[in-house]
# Entry
Amino acid sequence: MSLFTKSVLKFLSIMSLIAQFLCAFAGLMLLFGTGAVLLVPNGVKKQLLQYVDVNSNLNTNPSVWFLVLSCLVALAIIACLFIIMHALRKMIGNIYIQDFFVYQNLTCLKQILIAITSFTILQFISQLFFAKLHAYNVSNVFSNSSPGLLGNILLLAIVYTLYVVFKYGISLQDDSNNVI
# Structure
């Protein structure tokens, strides 16, 4: 393996670790923010929510259960991203030590597939919540549009293709090891 490839793999491993840290921090901030919104008096809550979108007919008094459910969906989305980054970092570590077609990589790809599928479903649910509140373009990070959803489905297809390739590579590796 070339020095450039090893450097890129180390960089990706560090970036995935940083992303994991940011996901954990975002989850904590989400819990803190949700707790703050649930605990502040109604007058202050209305003042805070008036700045969300001046031009829309925003329902400024969502129920407590709706806020809690929205928080749970957001936490699940962050957990999916955390799982994806963790599995990716484990795969990068295996590839760095030149363990390409091993069962751990296949397990990591399964985890990534499940997490991306869950992320896509949860993002769709999140879009429904935004539509109920008439809140659009809330996040610059996650698109709440149909092309974003189609992009996630395309990513899911690509990762599934990689999963099939790795699964076939592992069976070839096992056959090769049995012949020797």
